Amino acid sequence: QINIRSEFKDEAKVKALERRIKEDIEKLGREVYIMEFCGGHTHSIMKYGIDELLKGYVRFVHGPGCPVCVMPMQRIDLAIELAKIPNTVLCTYGDLLRVPGSNRKSLLNLRSEGYDVRMVYSCLDTLKIAQENPQKEVIFFAIGFETTTPQTAVLIQKAKDMGLKNLSVVCNHVITPAAIQYILNSPEIREIGKVRIDAFIGPGHVSVIIGTKPYHYFAEEFQKPVVISGFEPVDVMQSVYMIVRQIKEGRAVVENQYTRFVSYEGNSKAQKLVSEVFELRKEFEWRGLGIVPYSALKIRRSYEDFDAERRFIVELPKPKEHPACICGKVIRGVALPTDCKLFGTVCTPSNPLGSCMVSSEGACAAYFKYKRM
Ligand code: SF4
User: Fold this and answer.
1) Which residue, 19, 74, 90, 160, has most beta carbons within 10 Å?
2) Alpha carbons 83 and 115: distance in angstroms, whole number
3) What are the C-alpha distances in Å from 162 to residues 45, 127, 142, 154, 167?
4) What pTM, to 2 d.p., does this model score?
5) Would the CA dihedral through 37, 39, 42, 44 be positive or negative?
6) With a 6 A CB cut-off, is 288 part of the ligand 1 pocket?
7) Each residue of 259-279: pLDDT tens digit?
8) Does the structure's ipTM exceed the value 0.95?
9) Bridge partners (DSSP) listed for residue 118
10) For 73-174+296-311, CATH number?
11) CA distance linking residue 180 with residue 332, whole number of Å
12) Ligand 1 in contact with 40 (CB < 6 A)?
């Protein structure tokens, strides 16, 4: 029986891949710029010191694949204002509670002021909360990429089946391919020399759901290799090697390193479930990227009774970022966390001033945790 954990953490394999990557890059004669879209990969790269190992050979450009980081200020403000509605329980995942809104307050601050704000580990926990509090409105603030969307779809269907009248959802689920396309079309990224992207390490967990199919367009249209990768050190090193190979051979295709979990078609059952409950939003704002067309989902009319955005209208403050926070640039991959004047001094994981320092998938938090000061 194979021990997957140790097989994909094998130091000898990492060393062998390091040698091959460096040999190939030396033949190329230039540094290779790779964007890892997903915050989980940023975390792995920092944790295992892969950036240090390949220093001078591979430049990792950290992408926007952290769901908490990309929530724009206006959405954080929306969660805060919804939580203030009398007789309401606002539920969401842990990290989001700590992101400061326009008035510098987070949901966690609100909770200490007496508002009923609750952290849930699974969105399905909100079903029980709604049943136990029939006199209150329970609002689930849903965030996440394609990985968590099916579970929110299950929540909405279950709430309907159970006839719950006091549970609703704010849908903030975002879509990976639209963001990749936006980045590739961005003038900042196209400016070869300053910030460039030679290739992508494609997200692993997201691709379990959507498959490798949606990435073929980018590889072909923008001539960028995409390798869907796992998260262990051997996975990441192997993916880098596959990318370097493609560049060396003048190819730009989609390859799947994470074959133990990701297929071409993805999880069709989950895709069907998602399309039953959600439809595309025409536009959605991402922190750092701005308005990205067709990059998020909204709840279909057939489930409108469970759509908190239709049920509750709240007045929002004018969105106000911390003036010195450069999260937007970090998310676009055009600045490093260490370029921020507040990094590691005023802004730390215990006192985050921007979303990238809150989530463990955020680039600022990863740099802080793994001491890239
Ligand atoms: Fe924003 Fe803090 Fe990161 Fe600076 S270190 S960009 S303030 S989150």
Assistant:
1) 90
2) 7
3) 44, 9, 20, 12, 11
4) 0.92
5) negative
6) no
7) 999 999 999 999 999 999 999
8) yes
9) 91
10) 3.40.50.11740
11) 10
12) no
